[in-house]
Each structure stands twice: as C-alpha cells, then as structure tokens.
Amino acid sequence: MRERRETEVNIVYLTTEAVPFAKTGGLADVCGTLPSRVAGLGHRTAIVMPAFRSVHQSHAGVEPTDISFAIPMSPRKLVGCRLLRGRLPSAQDVPVWFIDQPQYFDRESLYGTATGDYPDNAERFSFFCRAAIQAIQRIGWNFDIVHCNDWQTGPIPSMLAADQNLSPALKNHATFMTIHNLAYQGNFPKSEFEWTGLDWQHFNQDEFEFYDRVNFLKAGIATADTITTVSPRYSEEIRTKEHGCGLEAVLENVSDRISGITNGIDQSVWNPKTDTKLAANYDAKSWQQGKLANKRALQQQFALEQSDEVPMIGLVGRLAEQKGWDLILPVLRWHLGENRPTQWIVLGSGDAQFEHELRALKEEHPDRFALHIGFSDMLAHRIEAGSDIFVMPSHYEPCGLNQLYSIRYGTIPVVTPTGGLADTVVDHNEISVADETATGFHLHTISPQGLDDAIGRALHLRYHHPQQWAKLIETGMTQDWSWKKSAMEYESLYAKTLALKSAAKRTE
C-alpha cells in the first residue's frame, strides 16, 4: 500500500472528455491537463471517464483490468461493464479509468450526430454516473475530492449524498461541480429521471426538477459542496438573466459556494519558440522575423497575395452564433467587398448556413480570404503564429483558449468584454498603455460596427504607432498563462472546502 503524505489530497476527476482520449471542446483540454498539474503540486489524482470509441482508437496504452460489475438501470434491466485503465501521456503518475460499456459508449460520436443528440443520453450518462461511483469505490484509494465536470456528471453529488452504503473510500469526501458552459444542462423529460436510480423524492425544485423536467446540471449545482466556473467574470455573469440560461436564481441561491478560476494553457504545446508545427520558431525578442515567416507560409499555402505589409486577420473555432458570427460575417463582407487592405483566414466548422456563406466569399475573393472547413491542429497553430490579429467576438465565453494562444504567439486579440475574454485580454486604452498592461482590444459596442471599429483601432495602432504595437505584442508574449497558477488556485479551494466540511461535521 502506497504511504500517504500528510498534506496530500486524493482527487478523482469525473468527466466525459480528456485529451487525448475524447474531445469536443475545452472540457477535454482542462481534464486532460489539470489533474497532472495538481499532481505536480504533491497530490494524488485520477480520472474516470466513459470508454468512448475514440478511447479505443487513441493508441494510448489502454488496458483491461479484472474489475467488472453491473448496474440495475431498472427492475428489468441490469447493465454490466468493466473497467479499463490507461494513463495521461503527459503524466504517467495520473491513472485514467474507463467505464467500458459498448452499448452506451461505442458510438460514432460522444453526444449525438449531425441530426441531434442521442435520444438515450439521459440513460447513458445516468449509467456513467452510477458506474463511476462504483469504480471509485473499487480503485482502492480513499478519495477526499470528487470533482465533477459539466451536466453529464451533474447527478453524482446527489447520488453520493443519497447512498447509505458508501465504502470507506468515500466516507469523508467533498464534491466539486465545475461548469464549463452553462448553456448545456442535460435537460430531459420527467420520465427519464428513473435512470438515475434515485428515489423520486429527489425530483424536487431544490434538486433535479426544472419546469417539470429533469435537469442534470441544476442538481449538481444545488448539491455540490463547491461550484467553480472557468473564469471569474463568468462566475458573476451566470447569475444574471442575460447569461444565466434559466438557472440564474439557482446559482444566486448558492453564490457563497461559487468561485471562478481561469483555465490555463499547456505552454509545452503552445510555445512559439519550440512549436514543431510552425514554419519558423520565435520568441518575444525575435517575433518580427518569426511571425513574418509564418505569415508568408500561410499566404503560400492558401495562394493568397504575397505581401509582408498587409495585416492578416485569423479566426479559429466553431461556426456558431455564440462565437459572434452574426458580427463577423458583415465585417468580413465589408473588408472583402470594399477591397480593404487586409487578408483573412478562417478555420472551423459548425452551422451549415455560416459554412455556405464562407465558401461563397472564398470563391469571390480567393486571393484575400483563406478558408478551411473542418479542423486541423497543425493549421490552428500556424494561424495563431502567422496572423497579426485574432478576432473572437463571442456573445458569451466561459473562458476561451484561443485568445490565450494568440497572446502567447504575439497575435493581437480583438474580443468582446465577456467571461474569460474580459478576464484575460486587457483593452488598449490610455490607462493600460500608461501602466503597460494592454494586450488587445475590446469591442465597445456589441454589433458589426463595434467589431469593425475595434479592428480599426488595432490596425491604426499597427500602421501609425509601430512601437506601441510591438509593446502590445511583447507584453502578451511574456505573460504566464500556464496551468500552474490555476492548479494552485484549485489546490487552495480543495483545502478550503475540506476544512469547511470537516468543521460542519464536528458541529453536527
């Protein structure tokens, strides 16, 4: 038996995504990195997630174990599964346990297809929650923190609280619920509640019930010991009607338990000095030559006009209204249609109408607009390195990562002042210039004209005040957006939560 250090905390992260095993968004980046960074601070961490098809295809050393069990999903439906085991490639001391149940998880994608969500998602993820609790108790550790992530794990705090037969491994645990995107809540018909295995007394307005439907995320928010979001600003915004997605009253009711911790980025992967995906490497001292070489490579790759002077504007991400495409498309049309001296490059996929409009613009302006519908990790890195400006006018953004990549790569972000974008990008103005903290530009009004004005301010600085432009780039490139700071904030919050829970038990 491994000896436990006095200050060591044992944490299990329950998630449906973690790189390199399964990914649809930022959740995978967080859960694929945070456990290793917390382990690096002297704690013991593990991950439990479903064995999706992508896990079996990952070639990441996933192996079977001799642990198997069954979950009674209904009086007439007993569903068996086995545990598989792997490790995070970047941290061999962090085990990843997979719930292997092909009927639920061996599918084309994680949550649904182009035609919509899988109709049995309530059943699938109720099973995952119940199986994850069984797995935790069989792994052989005494877990202090059960850290849940997003709606797919929302029922777990309620399940743990209601379970009268928990093993000693979970007798003194505390629960965390991290909201990565409040818009996705796991909202299902009332009849789906039976899959949770909980007594119907839990279907009430203080737990699962939400307008006579089942809401997985609401249950997690209402019953977890601590709730976190992925940026401080977002933790405040979700308590307003504008950004609360119907749960603002629930969140306000537990506001004393909510904290915002900004995500970090993996600076071993996102580092222009060592990035093997780039045409040329550079740092804060050599960015001028390095970024120019990467811009030329992009221009050549996409047959754009070869020009060192023309500013390149980049975008990477989902083609969805949340990301501000109702603002971007009019501005893109203005720049291309009016023959303004800019080049644009877009990488992404999503809304079919946005894809159609972008393809049409590409055909009309092939020498000034580069487009790749789909995803390419290599191209994402090259766009961050080769662009002069990165546009990210999200209507809401829990944290955002691309603005951090941009800052790291010396590409000036133009963003809406919302959520994590407001927390990480310092607007260029008289105050921030004077104290040398500016790293980008905020939209002053949320409209196509507001976006165009912000891009115009950036271009004006680049053309007419090159020394200030260079200062903006170098200030950003020398900032530390690694996971170390974020991991230390989680470490502190874990300790605080355990202390409060221990104090509460002593007074019972």
Write out the strand line-up for the largest beta sheet, numbering strands in chain order. 3-4-5-2-1-8-9-13-14
Number of helices: 19
Low-confidence stretches: none
Could you say which structural class the secondary elements and strand pairing correspond to? alpha/beta
Number of domains: 2
CATH-level-2 architecture of the largest domain: 3-Layer(aba) Sandwich
The residue-averaged pLDDT reads 95
CATH structural class of the largest domain = Alpha Beta
Helical content class: 25-40%
CATH topology of the largest domain: Rossmann fold
Distance N to C terminus: 33 Å
Shape: globular
Radius of gyration: 24 Å
The CATH homologous superfamily of the largest domain is named Glycogen Phosphorylase B
Main beta sheet: strand number and arrangement?
9 strands, mixed
Strand content: 15-25%
- Quaternary: single chain
Secondary structure tally: strands: 20
